[in-house]
Amino acid sequence: MLKPLKNVITKYLLLKRGWSPQQNLFYGFITYIILGAILLSLPFFQKTSASILDHFFIATSAVSTTGLVTISIFDTYNFFGQFIILVLIQLGGIGYLTFTTFMLLSTTRRLTNWHKKILSTEFTLPVTIKIKDFLKSVILFTLIMEVLGAILFFIAFKQEGMETIEALWSSIFHSVSTFCTAGFSLFNNSFMDYADHNFINFIISMLAICGSLGFIVITDFGLMIKDKTHILSFTSKIVMYGFIILLSFGTFFFYFFEPSITALGSESRFLTAFFQCMTAMTTVGFNTVDFAGFSQAMVLICVILMYVGASPSGTAGGIKITTLTAVFSILKSRIRGDKHITFLGRTIPYERLYIATSAFIFYTIIIVIGTFLITFSETFAFKDILFEVASALGTVGISRGITGDLSSFAKIVIIVIMFIGRLGVLTFGLAIWSKNITEKERDVLKEDIAV
Fold first, then answer.
1. How far is Cα 97 from Cα 450, in angstroms, rounded to an integer?
2. Closest Cα partner for 283 from 312, 310, 321, 251?
3. Nearest-angstrom CA–CA distance, 128 and 122
4. What pLDDT, in 10s, does the model give residues 281-318?
């Protein structure tokens, strides 16, 4: 009886390893979404019923760490349903295969070529960082930050008068959701009730920034602390400089030019401006003011920040700061007539420039197509639709209040866009159009399956 089962498992693994790394990521995340949607559809996990499309929407939003919701998480799902959502957020946040590969390293201390290919596809690592060190840093740093966040949230919620059990669960849920920049909340109005709560604003900002800066930067800094001779990678420097500049840029505009923020008192004005900029750029998706009340100019600023996102190999979405830097460097070099494309005195390899420009173009095309499709079925203002699409593709999760009122067609479009945003536009394209490996390569992989 065990032999036929073993044969089936072997054939499945062989089929799975016959896919390209991009296809493995594609089908891996789809599997998470389908299983999550099926579980959420069961009455056992619900307080009130909802359509199967809404369950798929929530599952996709959780796995993609977006945070857009068509129904109330707290009012629709019971504790067990909320726990399922939390697991999906965690799986989506740390990435496909990260946990299982970490367990493999813990037991066999060996990575197969198949694991290395997929991980290298999901996390674009600089040559100075080894995959083993990177994986250990991902798991350890995630655990430390989420535990720390849960403790701090618990203290804050208890100070606000929450019951112990409610405060404990809310702390755990929001800590994971924040660090994974998922934007899911058990509060129906996000964190608008805590707009002036400095401590809670600090907790969210700390977790979101640490998560969105990316595991590459954290690993790089950790290696520098451990080994004084280690030099920060070029990628880490780009991410840090770009993040600080964009965060300062966004905060400046929100502080001085958004009427709903300039009307606030001096004590909360800067905090509110910073938080809304931070939530858009880190793609954490929480808000302390209503984005529906923002002026058109600030809507555009939000779209730009959501479009860019933060760091590669982090929990944030967007085209990434590294891609923006590469495109900017191309423009600068062409204007100046330079023969080589450089940034911070370093020449950028043409291979990276090709990837960056392809991602930039593909990402923009998807936003245009997504916005175009939704305008056919919806009567919302164009800026609201564009904002929704940018939020979905950037896996941000903030909205101008139209998500719950979308038609079934528009919800399906947003589901697809959120999935593409989590997978990555180029990974999605390669998964769709790339061919499976050859039979010769398939035979070589049989050795890995036995490990």
1. 18
2. 310
3. 17
4. 988 989 999 998 899 999 999 999 999 987 776 667 78
